[in-house]
Write a structure and sequence with these properties.
This protein is α+β, with helices and mostly antiparallel strands. Helix content is 43%, strand content 29%. The protein has a seven-stranded mixed beta sheet, sandwiched between helices. Strand 1 and strand 2 form a beta hairpin. Helix 4 packs across helix 5. The longest helix has 19 residues.
Amino acid sequence: MLGRTFRRSLGVLTALVGLTACQLDTEQEARKIVAPWIFLAETEQFTSEKDCTVARFAVVSAEVRRTRGPVIMNSVRAAIPLLQEGRTVAFDIPGLTPNQVSEQLMSINLFKGLGMLASFVGPGKRCMDDTFAVDAYTVLMSSDTMMIYDPVTYSMVLLYRPAKVAFFMRTKS
């Protein structure tokens, strides 16, 4: 009898471990990554698979946190040394969309630019539903959006200021 109970308990434990291994992040882990950068409100959408995570968060403020937040840069070229050091950077470049910022980064430093691009494209394959993908693409192409990128966690946030919403995307590598 004890053997059967033990086997059931072991089976349940194995199933629980298997379920958590099927996603890259929990919602709380995703919020923990983003919270030092921006002022989060509620989570509007969250999806995580084994190699990607996406979330849409409402934000209290359309500004980036100044204390413990990302380094705010107004030049792609000036941001490269920070990215090479593994620092989180917020690109606040008037008149440029996040897409244009990533294109500039790829033309200056292909490796860092491709890493940033992978943070957006990677989750698109498995984690984004059609609505999320269209909305994320729309803000990616808007000059009203500030892009935050962490090269260590392969995380990207598109902070769309007019609607006070942030799109979080992360890939495994």
